[in-house]
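Reading a protein record of the kind used here takes only a little practice. An example makes this concrete, so a full record is given next.
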Amino acid sequence: MPRLSRSIVSIVDGIGTAARLGLAAVFLVSGALKALDPAQTRIAVRAYELLPRDLVGPVATALPLVELALGTLLVVGAFLRWVALASAVLLLILMTAVAQAWARGLSIDCGCFGGGGAVAKGDTHYPQELARDLGTVLLALWLLWRPQTALSVDGWLRGSGRTVEPGREPGHMTQITT
């Protein structure tokens, strides 16, 4: 594998760090707004008409906690590949829920950033919500592909506050020929 120049690695690290912090901001804001209004979060979850009544409460309680946990791990840069995978899976589940609401003709606000529930016919924003979520999934996929970012716990645990070049992780042996 050819070595990347330091300037390219720095640019890629910067993109990764921006992706990590952007994804963290989405989850922290979304989770906090839902956690601050648990009754409204229940209304939003119920509006999708997907879950049995007994599961609406637990899902409405767990969702903001999961989002806050993912956001926190992203901010500190811990377990990035796993957190990116969990983020992508969660976002794809949420996108599927929005898409099915749209396909079934439900008139709801997604509740992605608090609020949510029934809205008047024509007041839905499904295409914009799905486009926004797709962009967020792309951030998670970037981190899944290349979890090394600047100023992360993962980087610190590898022995530096900076990233490690792809293919050059600690323990990677390079054959030296003479």
Q: What stands out?
A: Residues 6-157 form one domain. Confidence is low (pLDDT under 50) at residues 161-178. The chain has one domain: 6-157.
